[in-house]
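Chapter review: from sequence to fold.
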Amino acid sequence: MNNACQSENLDTVKWLIENFDNKLFDMKEAMNNAGRSENLDIVEWLTENFDNEFFYMKETMNNACFMEKLMIVKWLLENFDNELFDMKEAINNACLMGKLYTLKWLIENFNNILFDIREAMNKAEKFDNKLFDMKEAMNNAWESENLDIVKCLLKKFDNKLFDMMEAMNNACGLRNLDVVKWLIEHFDNKLFDMKEALNNAWESENLDTV
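The C-alpha cell string follows.
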C-alpha cells in the first residue's frame, strides 16, 4: 500500500483496499507516502473515502513542503482546517530542503486563501510573521546552502527577526564561503562575532574560509 501511494498508482491503491482487510494497512503511513508523491488524486481519494482521523494531516503537510509538492500543499490548505497543520514546521521544512517556490507561496498566501490570488499577492506584506519562527527558518536555509532562500528571507522580512551573528557562524561552520562573502558585503560587520566565526571555520576544517 505504501509503495502504491508513493508510486502514484491510484488504481492499485483502490484494488488493495477493495480486496484486502484494511486493518492490514497503516493508513497514516499511506497518506504520508501520498503526500510525498505528486499525485493529488490519491490524496483526494483517501480523504474522501476514509475517516480523516485515520490520517496525521500535520505530517502530510510537512511531507508535501519537504518534497516541494506545492499542488498538494495548496489543496490541503484549501480543504482542511488550517489548525490541523503546524505552519512553523511547514515553512521550516521548505527552508531546510531549499524549496524556494513553496516558501514564497506560503509567505505570500497563507491566511489569504479566501482572497483572489492577485489580492493575496498585494496583501503578502501584511501576513502575520508570528506564524513562523523566522530565526529557525533562516538557520534551516543556511543548512540547505540555498543562498536564494536566504536572500528572499532577508529581503521580505525585517532583519531584526534573524540572528545575523548565528547566520555568520553557521555559514562558516558549514564551509559556505560564498555565503560568508555575501554576508560581509551586504551587512554591517558589527553584527558578527568574527572571533566566533573564525573558530567555526577552524572546527569545520575549512581552510578556504579561514
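Two observations follow directly from the output. Confidence is low (pLDDT under 50) at residues 112-127. Residues 2-159 form a domain with the Serine Threonine Protein Phosphatase 5, Tetratricopeptide repeat fold (CATH 1.25.40).
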